[in-house]
């Protein structure tokens, strides 16, 4: 799946993309493509959650009052 990082007020686009990339790298091999369960991890103080791949769940990362979203752009 290809994720598109959505605009996040107060967070530079490059920083948001790097955060999502680091989180996805941590998930590598831990969330099978057909999984119906979300997966989460902490990355640099951010709590990130990946929705179930079976339902093309996106990713969200949050820290205090900041949130980064990434939605599925394609497979």
* Sheet/helix structural class: alpha+beta
Spatial separation of the terminal alpha carbons: 4 Å
Enumerate the strands of the largest sheet in spatial order, edge to edge or round the barrel: 1-5-4-3-2
Q: Mind describing the biggest β-sheet?
A: 5 strands, antiparallel
What is the N-to-C succession of helices and strands? Answer: EHEEEE
Number of helices: 1
Radius of gyration, whole Å: 12 Å
- Quaternary structure: single chain
Strands, total number: 5
Shape: globular
Task: State the domain count.
Answer: 1
* Low-confidence parts: none
What are the main properties of this structure?
single chain; 75 residues; five-stranded antiparallel beta sheet; 1 helix; 37% strand
Spell out the blueprint of helices and strands.
Elements (H helix, E strand, L loop, with lengths): L1 E4 L7 H15 L11 E5 L2 E5 L8 E5 L2 E9 L1
How is this structure best described in words?
The protein is an alpha+beta fold and 75 residues long. The chain has one domain. 20% of the residues lie in helices and 37% in strands. It has one helix and five strands, in the order βαββββ. A five-stranded antiparallel sheet has the order 1-5-4-3-2, covered by helices on one side. Strand 2 (39-43) and strand 3 form a beta hairpin. The longest helix has 15 residues, at 13-27. The termini are close together. The mean pLDDT is 85.
């Amino acid at each position: 799946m290809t994720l598109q990082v959505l605009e996040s007020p107060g967070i530079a686009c490059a920083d948001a993309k790097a955060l999502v990339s680091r989180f996805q790298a941590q998930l590598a091999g831990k969330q099978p493509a057909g999984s119906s369960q979300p997966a989460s991890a902490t990355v640099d103080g951010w709590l990130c959650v990946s929705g179930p791949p079976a339902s093309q769940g996106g990713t969200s990362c949050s820290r205090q009052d900041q949130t980064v979203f990434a939605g599925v752009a394609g497979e």
